[in-house]
Amino acid sequence: MSLRIVVTVKYVPDATGDRHFAEDLTVDRDDVDGLLSELDEYAVEQALQIKEEADDAEVTVLTVGPEDATDALRKALSMGADKAVHVEDDDLHGTDALGTSLVLAKALEHIGYDLVVSGMASTDGGMGVVPAMLAERLGVPQVTLLSELKVEDGKVTGRRDGDAASEQLEAALPAVVSVTDQSGEARYPSFKGIMAAKKKPVETLDLSDLGIEADEVGLDGAWTKVEEAAERPARTAGTIVKDEGNGGKQLAEFLAGQKFI
């Protein structure tokens, strides 16, 4: 039986653009170019390497997002994924991490999976909690923040690197894993891959397809919300301390007047 690998990816605002909040204090995704989250490219790469080493495997990329999120899926397909699933619904606007994990879980149950691979976090939110939430909803093991990943004999194994030590972890399939940016550089799509991606299937689902009510997601169903946002103040000129024998005292007095969080 074919190994069913699903990679969860996210369409995010370009970090080099002018990112800001919309009037409802959600991330403005209309006035800035978007792309496949860089951290998710590592997840796609690891899934493709597992596929290449397996006798029979298929890689599906899954995203939850607006219409333009198809661009992120096409990037993953051009890298070598086989097909894509796009959950798109106007009622998803403002969905937080908890709601996103619900939608992803329902989508995964709909399409079927053996291994779910995620990036360590998204570059627009940076929370890094969705893989764990997703595993809990699915009732399967989670093996997160891996810098090395392998699948064999019905198990996923990997290495998690910490500040002082590394851990060797394993879990029986089905499972959810997340990989870090130390897992290996993601491949660049070839011209052949880009052309082939145009013909690969992209299935579109909405909330009704997944049996999810509108009030379970979106801003109304969110457990976390941004209450207030302000522009970062412009940088000001620093204070120059000329050391004429009392530089240490000047520095101590300066620090004593600062407010630290």
Automatic annotation (TrEMBL):
Alphabetized GO MF terms: electron transfer activity
The organism's place on the tree of life at top rank: Bacteria
Cofactor section: AMP; FAD
Record-level GO cellular component terms: cytosol
Keyword vocabulary terms for this entry: Electron transport, Transport
Domain (Electron transfer flavoprotein alpha/beta-subunit N-terminal): residue spans on this chain: 24-214
SMART domains: ETF
CDD domains associated with the record: ETF_beta (cd01714)
Pfam families associated with the record: ETF
InterPro entries, per the entry: ETF_a/b_N, ETF_b, ETF_beta_N, Rossmann-like_a/b/a_fold
Entry similarity comment: Belongs to the ETF beta-subunit/FixA family.
Assembly and interaction partners: Heterodimer of an alpha and a beta subunit.
Function text: The electron transfer flavoprotein serves as a specific electron acceptor for other dehydrogenases. It transfers the electrons to the main respiratory chain via ETF-ubiquinone oxidoreductase (ETF dehydrogenase).
Protein name: Electron transfer flavoprotein subunit beta
The organism of origin for this protein: Streptomyces caatingaensis
